[in-house]
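In this supplementary section we document a worked example of the pipeline. Step one takes a protein sequence of length 389 as its only input; no multiple sequence alignment statistics are reported here. Step two produces a three-dimensional model, which step three serialises into structure tokens for compact storage. The input and output of this example are shown verbatim.
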Amino acid sequence: MRRMLISAVIALTLFGNIPHVVVGQAPAQTSIYYPPPGDNWQRKPAAELGFDAAVLEQAVAFAKTQETKVPRDFSTQVQTFGALLGPLPKERGETNGIILRHGYIVAEWGDTLRIDPTYSVAKSFLSTVLGLTIDRGMIKSVDDPVRDYINDGGYDAPHNARITWRHHANQTSEWEGAMFGKSHDFIGVEQFGAGARQPRELKEPGEFYEYNDVRVNRFSLSLLRIWKRPLPEVIKQYVMDPIGASRTWQYHGYNNSEVTIDGKKVISVSGGTRWGGGLWISTRDEARFGLLFLRRGKWGDKQIVSEKWVQAATTPGSLGPDYGFLWWLNTHKKQWPSAPASSFAALGYGSNTIWVDPEQGIVVVWRWHQGNGDELFKRIIAAIKKDSG
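The serialised model returned by step three reads:
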């Protein structure tokens, strides 16, 4: 015992000035913060979150000058996308945005509480519904044929019968048919506006990438038939309420997208606002959704969507652009050359962006802006001090 005491005294004498370190313990970092429900979202000064305040202020000033050229009254919507099927607001908001680091607000500009259509950002919400469905065992595998679960005629043809849930989520389904008056082939200016396409030969499911809202709408209907309840209810109960989102967001269907589920009339929602309708949501609520994915599907002590799903959803497919399960990726640093390869985003026309940077613990939501966001992200990253965690 005396020898042990002597050894302890020697150790304290030799190493007493060395900071206390526990083997296997990571260096102390900024505490993990989840904003409570409501608007009482904690802010922190830029310097406290590891930014050069002046450089970050310049980044925000740049963002304010980059408002989109898309008319505020949506007057070019039909010309751009074709005949409307669902509602649109009378006008959109001005460019606005929010920057989070480690969950805290470090910068915010414009009206971030206003709800506006977010166009194809909605696709990443539908992707999350697929994740919830698989997490709960309602679909056994993303590689299962959709026809194993859906018997409404949409997958009866031999070609469509080979489509899997993965194909839908990677936009490689090549599904053939029509949804709510819109054909899969996007042929015809009246229905598809400037987005009309030329005829082409269909490929086998899984062998060709094509960004296609008709097929995403088929995917959404298939999820609706699995859940047997409106998908906005699913999103509200299992995602938005648990992360403390407001009650202001709305998810509209089309005027003709009502279907019958177990004898009840239910509205099927779309993967965007190309033909009206879609997800109308505030910047702050989108920031919560981005923070959920920054935290690998976890909110507080609750796993909202599995980490396994978040990993799968942000893993690139083998075809087309850098694209996961209805999320845009940066694996090859082509989407945002100035940003980390690990960053990813939900993107919509407008532009509407939820950008997540796991490397730096950052979430950026930017609404109604020009460009793809890289210039802003470059400025934000440049504002981070090298020794910040």
